[in-house]
Structure formats: C-alpha cells, structure tokens
Design goal:
Length: 267
C-alpha cells in the first residue's frame, strides 16, 4: 500500500541476475536515458517494497528469436516463486518455432504476451506478423505492446489503430499512454474499449502534470493502468510523480490497481 492505496506496477522488466547489467545497459543506450536500477528480481522487490507495492506485471522482450524460450522459463519460474507477480511471456515474430513456443506458453500460467516492435525490428501492422496476432487473438491472451518512439516508426499509434481494426478481438495494453513521445497521435488514433487499455509507464517524467491528466482523462481513467517501466524508473519516484497529478480518489484507486485486476481476469 502507498498512501492507503493498493498499487500494482503494470509494466516491470526483469532479467536473470547474470545478464541484468548488460541488458539494462543496452536499453539505456537505445533510449539515451539513465536507468534507476539494473533489473534483477531482488532489486525489483527492494524498489517495490520501499514504495509499498502490492504486485507487478513482469516481462522481458526477446530481442532475438532464439531468446524467447529462456526468457519464458525465467519469467515462469519467478511467477511460481513470487505470487505477487503477473507474468507476460516473450515471443519473437521471426522465430521459426513460433507455434511451438506459443503452445508452450499456453501450458503455463502466463497472463499475456510482451512485444516490442522497436527492439524486435518489425512494423506493428506488417502483414508478415499477422499470423502471430491471429494465434494470440484466438487464445484470448492480451499483448502488452511497447508503443511509440520519437525517431523510429515501428510502433506508432497509427499502426496500432490498423492492427486493432484488422483484429477485432485482439486484447492490447498499449504501453506508455499509447505512444512514447507520440502522445497527441495516440490521443487522436486510439479509442480505448473493452479490449484496449493503456499504461502510464515512462510518461509522467516527460510531460507536465496538466498534460498527463488531460491524456489520462481523454483515454478514460478507467482504461489506464499505473506502470513504472522498472528498471528505468524507481517505484517511489514514479508514485510521487503520479500523486502530483491530483486525480480523484476513484481515479487513483482504479489506475493504481483495480482497473488491471478487473481487466486481466476478464476475457
Ligand atoms: Zn516494456
């Protein structure tokens, strides 16, 4: 609990201890941003416990097709060990074993799939990746989709709008309020509904509180999940940024935990 609220981080990256430093260094260079932590599970719990976090949606991106299996073994193991974790599995659209890997995911208690078009170098609406969406849509599992980049166009809100149109039952959490540094485009192109939600991770430090409130209410506070994008940011600092928005008590309760809990268990 933080300030009397149950809080779930809807966007946390974790890495096995021995590769955490290298993985985080790569992300730091990609975004030209310093990282608060290195992404070990122990650190997640430290940063989270300090803030009074109640749970985490944990994931990791497969930057090469060969990585998905090892990542999913790791995330699966963490979720067995730490019941406060909601695991999202990795997939890489270029894997030759995509179907087998997806079948293996379905046998484990994963609650969704994490994709990152910019790290995985695919255009989100490329017909080449449509068979993958087909498979995911049929399963009912949601995708936590990285959204937006100021320099690259792999993951624009406009591409997401096309994917949602082409896959009318696909469930998506559009990260970073629908498009990191493409917030106006996201507000214009994305219409949250039963199957589309957004997270607030890696947004609040880049905009005024007034803009954050405007975007959250434009998408509907009931459609937004609080996310930290650990290890990029620290839980306590991100919660301070969140409470500086001055949202209503009901909006806070929903965004910090209730919206995610309700949505993740509905199909
Ligand atoms: Zn992410």
């Amino acid at each position: 609990m933080y300030n009397g609220y149950t809080v779930i981080d809807a966007h946390a990256h974790i890495f096995p201890d021995k590769i955490a430093e290298k993985a985080t260094e790569g992300i730091s260079q990609f975004y030209d941003l310093p990282m608060s932590h290195e992404g070990r599970m122990g650190e997640l719990l430290q940063s989270g416990d300090r803030a009074g976090m109640d749970g985490y949606l944990v994931c990791s991106t497969a930057t090469h097709p060969a990585q998905a299996g090892a990542i999913n073994a790791f995330i699966g193991e963490i979720c067995t060990q730490y019941p406060q974790c909601i695991g999202f599995a990795a997939l890489h659209p270029e894997s030759e074993m995509l179907e087998e890997e997806f079948k293996a995911i379905l046998k484990q208690p994963f609650k969704g799939i994490k994709l990152h078009p910019d790290f995985q170098s695919f255009n989100m609406d490329d017909p080449k990746v449509y068979p993958m969406y087909e498979m995911i849509q049929a399963s009912g599992l949601p995708i936590l989709m990285h959204m937006g980049d100021p320099h690259r166009c792999f993951s624009t809100p406009t591409r997401m709008a096309k994917v949602l149109k082409d896959f009318p039952r696909l469930r998506v959490i559009a990260a970073h309020l629908g498009g990191y540094r493409r917030w106006e485009e996201a507000a214009e192109m994305l219409r949250p509904s039963d199957r589309l939600r957004l997270d607030t991770s890696s947004c609040l430090g880049f905009m005024t509180p007034e803009d954050a409130v405007r975007f959250i209410r434009r998408h509907g506070a009931e459609n937004c999940f609080f996310g930290v994008d650990f290890p990029m940011w620290d839980h306590t600092e991100e919660l301070e940024r969140f409470f500086a928005l001055g949202l209503t008590d009901a909006e806070n309760r929903g965004i910090l935990a209730e919206n995610l809990i309700e949505w993740i268990h509905s199909k």
